[in-house]
Specification:
It contains six helices and two strands, in the order ααααββαα. It is an all-alpha fold. It has a two-stranded antiparallel ribbon with strand order 1-2.
Length: 163
């Protein structure tokens, strides 16, 4: 692989103690995975303190921001890429219905009652607080650059992926 300067960059083994003078040699899969694990754990641990889960937040947002009341299947289909398997989101919908954070109408479309909207707003406040912790010392420009690079890498891999 060549760097933008045209010189080859060797791939070093993943090393949490690697010196900052050679970060381009570190494997992106290791570091992006470590970041995902750390951020997700922090988010889920924090949500647990208010007896909520990340998938519950996804569902509440999906229903709350939908232009029209969605069906269970529409919510499950839209959130499937985020879920841990095909049954997670339907189970979460059941949990939220039981808790009174969702309700259905005669056509089985999903709505947020006042309790569900209050929970969604509280979770949004918590996520905003957690984002500030995660982004501490990271400028918006650095964040955008990191996302741009990750998206490019994903695109590169998907372009050569075999069906």
């Amino acid at each position: 692989m060549e760097s933008p300067t045209g010189t080859a960059t060797d791939q070093a083994p993943a090393d949490p103690a690697a010196a900052d003078d050679r970060p381009a040699t570190q494997p992106i899969g290791y570091w992006s995975g470590l970041a995902h694990t750390a951020v997700t754990r922090h988010l889920r641990d924090s949500m647990a303190t208010i007896d909520a889960t990340q998938p519950q937040y996804w569902v509440l947002n999906n229903v709350g921001y939908a232009p029209a009341a969605p069906s269970r299947a529409e919510v499950a289909d839209q959130l499937a890429p985020l879920a841990d398997g095909p049954y997670e989101i339907p189970r979460v919908v059941d949990q939220l219905l039981h808790r009174g954070w969702l309700r259905t109408d005669a056509e089985q479309r999903l709505y947020l009652p006042d309790a569900g909207e209050a929970a969604r707003v509280r979770l949004r406040e918590l996520v905003t607080e957690l984002r500030a912790v995660v982004h501490d010392g990271v400028s918006d420009e650095e964040y955008v650059a990191a996302l741009t690079v990750l998206r490019r890498m994903i695109s590169n891999v998907e372009a050569v992926r075999k069906p």
